[in-house]
Structures are given as C-alpha cells and as structure tokens.
Specification:
The complex is a heterodimer of chains A (408) and B (244). Residues 75-100 and 400-408 of chain A have low confidence and may be disordered. With 408 residues, chain A is α/β, with parallel strands linked by helices. In chain A, the strands form two sheets. In chain A, strands 2-1-4-6-8-10-12-14-16-18 form a ten-stranded mixed beta sheet, with helices on one face. In chain A, strands 3-5-7-9-11-13-15-17 form an eight-stranded parallel beta sheet. Chain A has one domain (2-333). Chain A has helices spanning 2-15, 22-25, 43-57, 102-106, 335-342, 348-364, 370-384, and strands at residues 63-66, 69-72, 110-116, 121-130, 137-143, 148-157, 163-173, 178-185, 191-201, 206-213, 218-227, 233-242, 247-256, 262-272, 276-285, 293-303, 308-317, 323-331. Helices cover 36% and strands 30% of the residues of chain B. Chain B has one domain: P-loop containing nucleotide triphosphate hydrolases (Rossmann fold, 3-Layer(aba) Sandwich), CATH 3.40.50. Chain B is built from eight helices and twelve strands. In chain B, the strands form three sheets. Chain B has a six-stranded mixed beta sheet, sandwiched between helices. A four-stranded antiparallel beta sheet of chain B has the order 2-1-4-5, with helices on one face. Chain B has 244 residues and is α/β, with parallel strands linked by helices. The chains are: A alpha/beta (408), B alpha/beta (244). At the A-B interface, α5 and α6 of A face α2, β7 and α3 of B.
C-alpha cells in the first residue's frame, strides 16, 4: 500500500508540481519528515483533549479531525445541510522518502466532502487536533448555485515527538456562490505544518481564503486559485507572525482566466526573534481576461536581531486591457511611531505591541469569524510578549487595539 | 512644574543642530519660539521630549530641578510634558479612542470609563470642529492636515499635561482653522493652568494668542529672550535685527 501510494503521488507531483515557478524555486524551505506511524488513540483520550480545548476557548466544533482522521461531528444540527463522507486511515501511513517529501502531502487520500446546494448558507467550524504523525487529509469544499459556505479551521498540536500536520483543500465555488476558508495555525514547536489550497471560482462566484500562521516549527503553505468564470473574484488574506526560530514558506498563486475577474492577494507578516519568512505571491492574467483586476500587496515588519523576510511578489500579464499592480515592502518598526506613542505616555514595549497588533489587525478585520479574530488577537499579543507556541492561556480582547476597519 | 534647559547642545545624524540653548518654562507661562527655517526649533522640541533621533551632547534638561536627559519619552510624558507634533505619524490599526484610553490608564494607573472618555472627546471634536468620525478611525490614519493638527490639540485636552510644547500648531491650516485651534489652545491652557511653549514661523496664530515671552532661535542658539513684542518686530522687519 505504501509503495503504491508513493508511486501514485510521485507521478501526480510530476504532472502538477507545486514548485513550478522558476523564480520561486530558489526561495523555498525543504523539509525532512520523520518516519513515524500514525497513531489512532482511544476515543476517551481525544475526547478529553477536545473538551479541554473547547472549554478553554469557549467554542463548539462541528468536525474534529484527529491526526488527519475525521473522528467526530460534535454538532449534528450544524451539519444537517452537509453531505459528509469521511474516509478512514487505511489509505496513507507514510510519506515519500524523496528529499523534499512535500509531494506526498499534496495528494492526500483521506477525504472529507462539504457540499452545499442552492442558496444554502452555512458555517462549519473544524478542529484539527494532532497528537502524533498526521494523515494528510483532503477537504473537498463545494458551493453550488448561490450557496454561501464559511469554513473555519483551528489547527492545534500537542504531540510528544516531532510531528507533521497536513491538510489539503480542494475548493470549487460554482456559479453565484461564495466560499470563505480560514485557517488558524497554532501548532506546537515540535510540528511541521503543510497546507495546500486548490481553488476554482466559476461565474460570478467568490473565494476568500484567510491564512493565519502562528504555529509550527516549519510552515509550508501553497495556494493555487483560479478565477475561471467571468466576473469571478478571489481574495487571499495571509497573516503571518513568525517568532522563536520558526521558518515560514508561503506561496500564493492566483490566475485570472476570464473577463472582468478580480484577484486580490494581501499578506502582512512580522518576523520576531530569529524567525525567517519567505512570502511569494504570484498572479497570472491570461490572454482574453479583459477588464480584470489583479493586485498583490505584501508588507512585512522585521523585529529581531537574526530574523529576516523575503517578500517576492511576481506577475505574468498576457492581456493588455487589465489593471495589475504589485507591491512589497519590509522594514523594521518605524521608530517615529514608537516615539510618537511614547510621547503620550505609553512605554516602548507596549508601543511596539500596539504597532504590531495594529499592523496585523487590518488583515484580521477582513475575516468574518468572530472566534477566529478573538483567538488570533489574543495569540498575537501573547506571542509578541514572548508567550511561545500554542494556544494562549488567556483569551482576552478587552484591550484590543483594533481599528474600526478591523473591529473585533 | 518648571522645565529648564541649560546650555543644551544636540545633534541629529551626526550634525550639531543646537549649540547651547538655555530656556525656562513654568506652568501658567506662555512662551513662543520663533526662528528662520533650519534654526533648530523642531530639534529643540524633540530633544525636550527625548526623541531617539536626537543626541544630546552637552547640557541639561531639568524638570523641577531633576535632570531628565536619560529619561525615556514615556516617562517624560508621565511627568507632565506633552509634544504636539508638527507632522503626526499615521499608525494603522491602532484605534483612536482605545489609544487615548490606554494613555490615560497608564497616566492615572486606574481604569478609565470609555463612556466618559467618549464624552470628553466628543466635546472637543465639537469645539475644534473636527468630524466626529475620527474616533472610529486609526490613529492619525487618513486624517487631513487640518484634522491632524486639531487631533493633536484634542489629545492635549484629554491628556491634560502640565507643560505642552506645540510645534507649529498653525502650519497648513486655513484662516478659520487657525482661529479655532488658537482659541482652543487658549481655553485648555487657561483652564488647566498649563505652561505653553509654542513654536511658530508666523505671527498669524499669535493674533489670537497672548504669549508673555518670546525667544528667537537662530543657528542653534537663542539670540533673543524677552518681551513678546519682539513678535511684532519680526512681522514688520523679519529676523534681521536679531540675527545681525
């Protein structure tokens, strides 16, 4: 089974590699994955962990994925409109042995389908709980005929040894529908994190993705979304807070394939300590995509002696009748901002925290889920203050410094 | 409260800007500093507030007899000093009201009622004729030039410092706005018994204000300190008499 999977995954990867951009190939993190078996713990064990986390965060999850396996749906009502098929862990138990083992995670076999029909409106909250090696699970998310689907994912890892947490998404927004996918990563320091999004927006539909990366020792995220139908819209919104010695590698590709499409990629990243980030946003506008708009904005703050960030926006434009812009800017914290705040009586540490949370909060304001914003804000404050990996002990937004644009 | 500057030498970017400035301002006093472009007015203001971009190479800044040369800007603010910036920096994502609330909480070391704060802010948005919508915006972000100047005065009214240094509170304002800003500064400073050190290029704003003392800064040195009627001389004949 393992050999069969490896062959199949390698073949698929050759046909559709994620690392196809010649420029970006020079800037990527390589991962060495440990050879470990996926453990399926007893039900009482994961239930207890889920309960503790749910109580702490004051949340209820509709789906719980444990080590890549869908183990439970906690809210049947919330899933009434959904058609969920969960495959078990028979398919994959090990990853490729090639130098860059990312390929295996790109072609998962464990699969969940979330599909909404005409004019339905649904929010699905998912917990990914990893306590050992994780199976790379694939979520198929489909919205049809005017449906609106919001999927919020919280990634939490509490493993005893090095682990790999992976999740793939295959998203299709059919005519007139809307999908918002938000991924909040708060894994521990022993986890490597892989996430992938393949998306397709059809006529007059929209796909919005929010990636919040604040967990894991190494992070590799790949996103490829196509505005395939006329007047379709894509928005990617990435919020990255790197700390400790984290390594983050994020690539977001968008393609405009039809007339009057809109494709907006925004990234806000902060690197603290000795964290390193590579942020790559690529937009392609194909011939015939008249009247389309494509914009890339990448902004970064570096505030660590050994931290660094590469912002690499890139575009390929094959149609003349379009609006296309890209921008990238990274800098240390503006000392004039700190001085301004201090001149009012705020100490330097708090002033820095305010600048950082303010910098990221504009992106948080674009996320619809209140609980995601709540936990994210608390996590940002916690990590900037040196709180380390994982979910912060205290979830508190009473002192939230969020502008009106990003009101919590 | 008494602010004293004694023989202050300061440089920015390795270049000496202030070359032995001495000045004294107490609460209840109104001083004005004038001087041609590049004479060091803004550098002096920033040096008093402790800007990291200004290096004090010699001399002293004292508050009530205690030297504050090495004090951080926030500690100087907590002593009662306030700097109105000539060009306030925009800070995205930091809410205007939330920021002021935390500043006051830091100053008073107690919880501040948002409702009361909002009422105080509303009072001054009305007096200063600023769009009340600024309270829902990020700090200085997207503010017009006039809004920024007025917002600084609003912050001064809310923070209630003992001595305020106002760096060109009139620049970039139209005639009506200058009058509004000046009248509000008068009202706030008189009510609180504040000391004022106003830096300006023109006497336009001073036609609405009554400084007691004038100082002329030229090439990093105070070349005149005395009665405020020097302002009229400058208006008539420029700085020539003082810089010869």
């Amino acid at each position: 089974m393992r050999d069969e999977f490896r062959k199949e995954a390698a073949l698929l990867y050759k046909q559709m590699p994620y690392e196809s951009n010649e420029l970006y190939k020079k800037y990527q993190l390589l991962f060495e994955l440990p050879d470990r078996e996926v453990k399926r713990p007893d039900s009482e064990s994961w239930k207890q962990k889920v309960k503790e986390l749910a109580d702490r965060l004051n949340l209820k999850f509709d789906i719980v994925v444990h080590n890549g396996i869908v183990v439970h749906s906690l809210s049947k009502n919330a899933l009434r409109q959904l058609d969920i098929e969960a495959m078990d862990d028979k398919s994959i138990t090990e990853v490729l042995r090639s130098r860059d083992k990312f390929a295996a995670y790109a072609y998962a076999k464990s699969e969940v389908a979330i599909e909404l029909g005409s004019d339905a409106d649904c929010v699905v909250d998912i917990l990914f709980l990893n306590t050992s090696e994780s199976l790379p699970v694939l979520f198929n998310i489909r919205a049809r005929d005017g449906a609106r689907v919001t999927v919020n994912e919280l990634f939490f890892a509490d493993a005893d040894k090095d682990t790999v947490c992976g999740c793939m998404h295959d998203i299709t927004a059919a005519s007139g529908s809307e999908i918002e996918l938000t991924m909040l990563h708060l894994e521990d320091k022993d986890s490597d994190v892989f996430t992938i999004i393949n998306g397709r927006a059809e006529e007059r539909s929209s796909i919005r993705t929010n990636l919040i990366s604040m967990g894991g020792r190494k992070v590799r995220h790949r996103s490829k979304i196509v505005a395939a139908g006329k007047e379709s819209r894509i928005f990617t919104n990435d919020v990255v807070l790197g700390f400790d010695s984290q390594k983050v590698d994020i690539e977001t590709d968008t393609t405009s394939k039809n007339v009057h499409t809109e494709s907006i990629s925004n990234t806000r990243a902060i690197m603290l300590g000795s964290a390193a980030g590579i942020i790559k946003s690529f937009a392609k506008i194909e011939k015939g995509s008249k009247g389309s708009v494509s914009k890339i904005n990448e902004h970064g703050i570096v505030d660590g002696e050994d931290s660094y960030i590469y912002l690499i926006p890139d575009m390929s434009i094959d149609e003349s009748d379009v609006v296309a812009t890209h921008a990238g800017a990274a800098a240390p914290i503006d000392k004039e901002k700190i001085f301004y705040m201090q001149s009012r009586g705020v100490d330097e540490r708090l002033a820095k925290l305010l600048v950082m949370t303010g910098f990221l909060s504009e992106s948080l304001g674009r996320i619809s889920s209140e609980w995601v914003k709540r936990i994210t804000y608390s996590s940002i404050v916690d990590k900037v203050k040196g709180g380390g990996f994982g979910v912060p002990e205290k979830i508190d937004i009473s002192d939230a410094w969020i502008s009106e644009k990003g009101t919590l | 409260m008494k602010l004293e500057i004694k023989e202050l030498y300061a440089s920015a970017g390795g270049k000496e800007i202030l070359s032995g400035v001495s000045l004294s301002v107490s609460t209840g006093e109104f001083h004005v500093i004038m001087g041609p472009n590049g004479s060091g007015k803004t550098t002096l203001a920033k040096a008093i507030m402790g800007s990291p971009g200004i290096e004090i190479t010699k001399g002293e800044i004292l508050v009530d007899g205690n030297q504050i040369n090495d004090l951080s800007p926030d500690k100087r603010a907590l002593l009662g000093l306030f700097l109105q910036f000539q060009n306030p920096v925009e800070i995205g994502g930091v809410g205007y009201v939330s920021f002021l609330r935390s500043v006051l909480e830091k100053k008073t070391d107690s919880t501040v009622s948002t409702k009361e704060l909002m009422e105080r802010i509303k009072e001054y948005t009305s007096k200063l004729q600023i769009d009340h919508g600024i309270i829902g915006r990020s700090l200085n972000e997207g503010f017009s030039g006039g809004e920024k100047k007025k917002s600084e005065v609003l912050q001064m009214a809310v923070i209630k410092p003992k001595i305020a240094i106002l760096d060109e509170p009139d620049s970039g304002l139209d005639v009506d706005a200058v009058r509004i800003v000046a009248n509000n500064i008068n009202e706030i400073s008189e009510r609180l018994g504040m000391g004022l050190l106003v830096i300006t290029h023109y006497n336009r704003i001073l036609s609405y204000m009554k400084p007691q003392f004038a100082h002329i800064l030229y090439k990093g040195k105070i070349v005149y300190s005395g009665a405020a009627d020097a302002v009229d001389e400058i208006e008539r004949n420029g700085y020539e008499k003082f810089t010869r």
